[in-house]
Specification:
The protein is an alpha/beta fold and 237 residues long. The protein contains seven helices and ten strands.
Amino acid sequence: MATPHIKAERGDFADTILMPGDPLRAKYIADTFLSDVRQVNAVRNMLGFTGSYKGRPVSVMGHGMGIPSVSIYAKELITEFDVKNLIRVGSCGAVRDDVNLMDLVIGLGASTESRVNRTRFMGHDLAAIADFELTQHAVAAARHLKVPVKVGNLFSADLFYTPQSELFELLKRYGVVGVEMEAAGLYGVAAEYGARALTICTVSDHILRGEQLSADERQTGFDQMMEVALESVLLGD
């Protein structure tokens, strides 16, 4: 049945969903990579679609920006629409010297400055980690497609424009592979409700070196990431 944020019925979503932040990215994924597509959500223009990739049912829907937004959609998809596997596909910034523009980053875990997982975990620290098998499949797909990949800890920030510029040197020292805004929340929701989750990002900018991709390069990187994500879904069957 419909929720306040998703107007769909049980069965409208596949058991696996790919989730970019931007709902127009969701439409792009559906139009470009999926066949037999039908739209299953348009509430608040958070577009959602279900189709198939090489015969495998797959859904795609935006999740908005930040942990609160992704947490709402992830929870409802899991508990109301029986989604089992949620894969965030997005972009991140790099801080480590060995992580470069266009690299693929797979979030094995996600640290954060947000308190949402402490609230969820009765004040304790939750190890917000990705599902092991989803991670394995994504790494295998990236290596098969010869896409440079780094696997490690993400940092999910609450503030895009942080006043704490010294934070990035700290993240570098601790080996963080990418800075983004959603993975820790997604992993916490998946843990609470018994689903599997993963975050795959393209490095769109290097925060400490001041480098960034052009618009055309961002599109190329996104398409490369999508191929890895979709091929990883097939490895899970």
